[in-house]
Amino acid sequence: IMVLDAIVCYGVSCHMAARMLFHHKETRGDVIIEMVIWQIPELTAYRPHGLKYRFFCGTATTCLVRYDNESDKGDHRHYGEQEETYVFQSIERVVEDFRNDCIRLAGWEW
């Protein structure tokens, strides 16, 4: 099981009433990696695990891969312009899958 490197708590976010649990952003050359996880106050049909997340790998103009769970779509991932459903198993698994995609698609070294 993969453990997140750090947990950063910023309290309550005004626009979502959610608590940020983790935020990491890094740039190498043109490639940007950003990972954000919030704990939401109530479970919903689209977020039954109680988490909202957004993981991005790409450049300022191009998305190589993005994992997120928008309120009207649930868990899914984007490969460039294509979007597909993502089966959420655990937040550790989402992080692991995202990191592996960053290695494969951007040559990112963690």
Task: Summarize the structure in words.
The chain is mainly beta. It has one helix at 91-106, and strands spanning 12-13, 18-28, 31-39, 51-58, 63-70, 74-79, 82-85. Strands 1-2-3-4-5-6-7 form a seven-stranded antiparallel sheet, covered by helices on one side. The chain is globular and about 40 Å long.
Oligomeric description of these chains: single chain
Largest sheet descriptor: 7 strands, antiparallel
- β-strand percent reads 35-45%
Radius of gyration: 14 Å
Structural class by SSE content = mainly beta
Determine the number of helices (DSSP H or I, runs of at least 4 residues): 1
> Mean pLDDT, nearest integer?
88
**What's the helix-strand series?**
EEEEEEEH
State the distance separating the first and last CA atoms.
Answer: 16 Å
Short overview:
This protein is mostly beta strands and 110 residues long. The protein has 1 helix and 7 strands; from the N terminus they run E-E-E-E-E-E-E-H. 15% of the residues lie in helices and 44% in strands.
